[in-house]
Amino acid sequence: STIVLVFEAPSAEHDEAGRHTGGWQWCVEKGQRVKVGQALGRI
Amino acid sequence: PGASSKVQDSRIRWYPIPVGLGVGFLGLVQFYKVYTREQEKQAQDELEQRPKRRRRVRPEGPWQVQIMSTLPLKAMSRLWGRLNELTLPTFLRVPGFRLYSFIFGVNLDEIEETDLRKFPNLAAFFYRTLKPGARPLDMDPNALLSPADGRILQFGQIEGGDIEQVKGMTYTIDALLGQNSPTPSISSQTPLDQPPKPSLHELEGDEELVKQEAEFARVNGISYTLPYLLSGPTKRRKSSLDQPKDESVTPSAAAVSEVRAELALGEPSWLHYLSPGSRHVLYYAVIYLAPGDYHRFHSPTNWVVERRRHFAGELYSVSPYLQRTLPGLFTLNERVVLLGRWRWGFFSYVPVGATNVGSIKINFDRELRTNSLTTDTAADRAAEEAARRGEPYLGYVEATYEGASAVLRGHALRRGEEMGGFQLG
Lengths: 43, 425
Description:
The structure holds two protein chains of two kinds. Chain A is built from no helices and six strands. By secondary structure, chain A is mostly beta strands. Chain A has a two-stranded antiparallel sheet with strand order 2-3. A two-stranded antiparallel sheet of chain A has the order 4-6. Chain A is elongated and about 40 Å long. Chain B is built from 15 helices and 13 strands. In chain B, strands 7, 8, 9, 11 and 12 form a five-stranded antiparallel beta sheet that branches. A three-stranded antiparallel beta sheet of chain B has the order 6-13-10, with no helix packed on it. In chain B, strands 2-5 form a two-stranded antiparallel ribbon. Chain B is globular.
């Protein structure tokens, strides 16, 4: 079984050095095991 | 006497004619009845079988996929479910569940019911609950939580309406969620300038609940603009299980111009949910639940579910192998699409069934029946009716959750709240 989430969020913003400065940011990686309540990403 | 005898003889010869005619007539009537009944039965059989043949999409892929596409996957799934609902002998339960846990990596320490003998069968063990506190929620209120235990197969940003599956295969967001088509009745029938109708809680005089819902909407910044209004005054596409219910909605007047501007854009797609000029984009994440994982799923954030679409598709396995080899797997399988809003706008949540776990349960939707012969037949009939009218079959049965609250206009879910789960078969 699988769950697919599709959602709207403010787009990620980065500075010239590529650092995240605002908007949506993922906290996971492909293939990573996650558990209920663990953060997938944050704004 | 001779003449009398001749008359009698002639009468005797004429008797069989009316009798024969009567018998012949009755025979013809009977033959006609049987013939008509057979014709009707044949037509009915064709009516029932035709949509199934039409609905069954033959997927592309290697020979394993081709073989799988010929199998009666939904029937197999239902049989699997029935088998797993058989009560096991008590002496077999502990070794059986321990063996299952060993093979699939179940952590027995976190199960709420510590006595394995109390699970009557594998189906009950599979749908187990966890001890309170076994899954702490991330403390950051701006975090989107994982809805289930599992593995992240894919995530990213939706560009051009495409969602990447695995290994570069893509499918469109419209295929996954269904077309986002507004009903023409929005502008013609919906009393857009009227205030919202009172909620059930208001009608019942339950002011406390109304206040709580208003507070939920305020705290979570949930507003009701495009997605809600574009759905229009929805009437259920009734399945045989749905109760007849007129569910007209009355959107707030504040967004009338916004909606009309949106409708003027032409054929809407899910990307049109994004406000023009805003810096919002659509993101997606795919989480795969392995057989040993905890199979209940939870709300990843505070949000409001407004609509549910049930796609009664096939039940292919969703193992990572098949996801690599079968393009558009999630758009073929049976799934429940929950559509709504969170504080940043559109939010959708799609549990996708598989062969071994075809039953998707949504706690707040008692009418929903997945992997059911009844709903399959209803979907077949809907497809047949759409074909008869010359319209494309949308592929889903829709229901709305509005009506419980004038404030929220949908079913509110708090982050971490249990929403439902996947059950065997």
